[in-house]
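To fix ideas, we reproduce below a protein record of this kind.
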Amino acid sequence: MSVPGPTPARPDPHVQFNQSINLFEESFDKMQTAEFHEKKDQYIKVMNETLTVMQDTANAMLNKHLLEMKAMLAKDLNHYLDNPSEVNKQKVQADIDSLKNS
């Protein structure tokens, strides 16, 4: 029996967050000097979109630890299912306890 392992790798949330900050700053600076209202509106749209990305990546940074713990639980469970020893059982229980205390 197999339990799904870790989810596929995603872009590093720290990198995405920093890129969003840089893009926001660049758009903010350019908005200040834009001569046309339509251009200013485009920069405002970009800034609003980057705020959304910042929120999503901030949430991902907080949840990354839990995802790593879930991946460890899945790995240890697979080991236990392949070899139901007391040591493997204790690893699964320790993973469960860690998740409960997070």
User: Anything to note?
Assistant: The first helix runs from residue 13 to 33. The chain has a mean pLDDT of 86.
